[in-house]
Write a structure and sequence with these properties.
7-stranded parallel sheet, 6-stranded parallel sheet, globular, single chain, 392 residues, alpha/beta
Length: 392
């Protein structure tokens, strides 16, 4: 193909979570002599937009409806009417910027422009950054991808199963399908983090033990599981402090946040658990914590926070869910447990009692992220797919 490959990245949110950070990392490092990227967002209100502007990444704003599960026929009709209007608008956008490739992380994003992509014979890549929680959703996404996607990139082998188990070989023929693990630039992530005196601010006694949990306050992430483990008979008397970093992503999660607060109050955990809300400076907390506990109770495709903890050589305890076993080898670069409060409590107790003997775990974690889950490898494999798609 003569000229640059023009890529349009769709995002239905201007908030900043793992997938958005990874997208910025990729776009910044693309070979601009070959690729010309533009990101489409629904608004300018969130930190994702601000970070894109900071790195001078070409950004366009288009309002997009946010689909929620509803049985109200009028709301569904209104949503699909908006979808048709957006498809019409994106027809001109794709032509105006001579877009060759569209990249989406969800089928909802792909819905907004799937028709003009077909009409103009552009290429559509859909990335599987999450694992869906019900069979009908998996079937729906796989069916949509079978019809509209030219390429499917899954962030983990487990995430790819959402497609391979629910799509036909006939419909998959000719598509570029692969697994590309997310990566991180370890040196850049650690550069310039602010030192935080967690010892005096949260630890209390000098021999206290800091457990860090980072993530949106949502049932998937399992903050309640961590609190239930901490209050269990096995470890409730240990001198530990739990720091919850994160806040609700959607208003629908407010009830879960209130549930966490209620549990803390009813179990007298006020001195043991601190809810710190969203913090942009997580590097300082990772640097000072004794252990990161990431304990989703549902399938988690490939959580970036594990890689971030690895960058600081932190010990990570995580539930054996989704793509996490592809990141953590138990008792080598971290610890795996079941999504059960007693199993998690056992791992916390083990690390607590052996913290001075586990230096090799942190070293192996750092080695994993430097050698296996680095941004250079992810970029190299991603650019290969872009080039193959443009040649089809």
């Amino acid at each position: 193909m003569a000229g640059k490959i023009n890529i349009l990245y769709m995002s239905r949110t201007s908030k900043l979570t793992g997938p958005e950070n990874i997208l910025i990392d990729i776009i910044r490092r693309l070979d601009k002599g070959i690729f010309s990227p533009v990101v489409v967002l629904p608004d300018r209100n969130g930190p994702f937009f601000k970070k894109l502007q900071l790195h001078k990444i070409n950004t366009k704003i288009k309002k997009m409806p946010f689909l929620r599960v509803t049985y109200n026929p009028f709301l569904l009709l209104w949503f699909f009417l908006n979808i048709l209007i957006l498809n019409f608008n994106f027809l001109f956008t794709l032509k105006k910027y001579n877009i060759n490739l569209v990249v989406c992380n969800t089928i909802q994003e792909a819905l907004y422009l799937s028709i003009p992509v077909k009409i103009l014979k552009r290429k559509l890549m859909i990335c599987f950054k999450n694992i869906l929680d019900s069979r009908w959703k998996k079937k729906l996404r796989a069916g949509f991808c079978s019809i509209f996607a030219d390429s499917i990139i899954a962030v983990s082998e487990k995430a790819l199963e959402d497609y391979t188990l629910f799509s036909s070989k006939k419909r998959s023929a000719g598509k570029l399908i692969s697994v590309i693990h997310d990566g991180i630039d370890c040196r850049e992530f650690k550069r310039g983090f602010k030192e935080i005196d967690v010892m005096s601010k949260y630890r209390g006694e000098s021999k206290g033990f800091i457990i860090l949990n980072i993530g949106n306050l949502t049932e998937l992430k399992g903050q309640m599981l961590l609190l239930e483990s901490v209050s269990s008979n096995k470890i409730k008397n240990l001198n530990i402090k739990v720091l919850l970093l994160g806040d609700v992503y959607h208003r629908s999660e407010m009830a879960y946040k209130e549930k966490i607060k209620k549990y803390i109050n009813e179990n007298n955990l006020e001195k043991k658990v601190s809810m710190l809300g969203y913090r942009p400076d997580i590097g300082g907390y990772l640097n000072s914590a004794d252990v990161l506990v990431h304990c989703p109770i549902k399938e988690d495709a490939f959580p970036r926070v594990v890689l971030e903890a690895f960058c600081f050589g932190r010990i990570v305890i995580a539930t054996r869910m989704g793509g996490i076993p592809e990141m953590i080898k138990d008792n080598h670069n971290g610890f795996l447990c079941e999504a059960d409060k007693n199993s998690l409590a056992d791992k916390i107790l083990y690390v607590y009692e052996n913290r001075n003997k586990l230096g090799h775990i942190g070293k192996n974690a750092l080695k994993s992220v430097v050698e296996e889950f680095n941004i250079s490898s992810q970029l190299r494999e991603t650019e290969k797919i872009y080039n193959k798609l443009s040649a089809l």
